[in-house]
Amino acid sequence: MPLTSIITVNFHQNEVTIALLRSIASAYNGGTVEVLLIDNGAEKDQKHIFEPYFENICYIRSSENLGFAGGNNLGIGRASGDYILLLNNDTEIPAGCVETMYAELEANEKIGLLSPLLLYFDQKELVQYAGFTPLNYITARNAFIGQFEQNLGQFQKSYKTGFCHGAAVMCRREDLIRAGLMDENYFLYYEELDWCEKFMRTGKEIWFTGKTHVYHKESVSVGKESPIKVYFMTRNRMLFIRKNTGWLNTLLFSLYFCLIAIPKTVWDYIASGRKDLVKWVLRGLWWNFTHKRSSSDLGMVLPGKRSS
After folding, report:
1. Residue 240 in contact with residue 193, Cβ under 8 Å?
2. The domain 4-216 is classified under which CATH number: 3.30.70.3450, 3.90.550.10, 3.40.50.2000, 3.40.50.10490?
């Protein structure tokens, strides 16, 4: 197998990242895998903390918080492998994972991006992701395939899917060069969906394989229903449609989003006692009416992130 570059982004979660490095080390001690660790928003160099856990590691410190897309792009720029595997730092992999994904890519030239079966780390027989249904571009909604099902081997196959999952996704370097890097204007959420659109515009397909799996510690990075998550999920859902559809679809989506989806979300937060999140929904929506789709202004100040 040719060299595969595993890229992971750490943001003040050293112990979580070390657990990932340990899982990689237990599976790969040879020279077929390198790890590029992006230490995002790091106040000081922490190379010495991570180096003992994997021999072939390239530690890259960024004093600025570049977000998920920016951190991965930084790693891609330094990667040496013919294959690129992006792994969330809140994942752990089993032996044979990289080889299996490599074999699937080798067997089908149409595959541009490939994600494996994701299982919940705390309930290892419970499926999180076995692919996505196609996206409804009017509502910007689709659904997980297999989520919360017991893993009984029913997904032990490969097939074309709506989108990859950003927690674990692999591609060839040559395909990535044609498609381009992730769009850093998203910062968090929807950047992998946008990346899939870029690959599909080059004629490539998005695939899932259940022949291997990755364990995912869901929501370690941001937390459930945090202001950051609510803001970027709202902002980027509309931004994704603006960037990837025509004016008519964008208009229809905007009517649905503003008149149905947003009011429902606001009401749900009020009813559940989370009035504090309402302003972040509205701020995420308002950003799209006050910024061009190419704007690099995130619209909020984040820890470790210099304002635009």
Report:
1. yes
2. 3.90.550.10
Name the residue ranges covered by the structural domains of the chain.
4-216, 227-290
Token digits of residue 253: 């989506």
pTM score of the predicted model: 0.92
Mean pLDDT of 249-268: 98
The model's confidence at residue 220, banded by pLDDT at 50, 70 and 90, is very low
User: 85 to each of 65, 161, 269, how far by Cα in Å?
Assistant: 21, 18, 37
Other beta carbons less than 10 A from residue 187's beta carbon? 25
Mean pLDDT of the chain: 93
Q: How confident is the model at residue 29 (pLDDT cuts 50, 70, 90)?
A: low
* Per-residue 3-state assignment (H helix, E strand, C coil) for 249-306: HHHHHHHHHHHHHHHHHHHHHHHCCCHHHHHHHHHHHHHHHHCCCCCCCCCCCCCCCC
